[in-house]
Amino acid sequence: MGREKLGKVTPEITGIEPLSLHYEKKIESPIDEDTVRKISKEKGEPEWMLKKRLDSLKVFNSLPMPNWGFDLSSIVNFDELIPYAKPFSEKLEESSKIPQEVMKVLEKLNIPEAERKYLSGSGTMLDSEVLYRRIKDELRRKGVIFTDMDTAVKEYPELVKKYFMTFIVTPHNNKFAALHGALWSGGSFVYVPKGVKVGLPLQVFFLINYPKLGQFEHTIIIADEGSEVEYIEGCSAPVYSTHNLHSAVVEVHVKKNAFVKYVTIQTWTKNVLNLNTKRAVVEEGGTLRWVSGNIGSGLTMYYPSAILKGKGARAEFLSVTFAGSNQKKETGSKVFHLAPGTRSRIVSKSIVKAGGYAAYRGLVHVSKGAKGSVSSVKCDALLLDDLSESATYPYIESYESDAEVTHEATVSRIEEEKLFYLMSRGLSETEAKAMITRGFMEPIMMNLP
Question: What is the value of pTM for the model shown?
Answer without folding.
Answer: 0.91
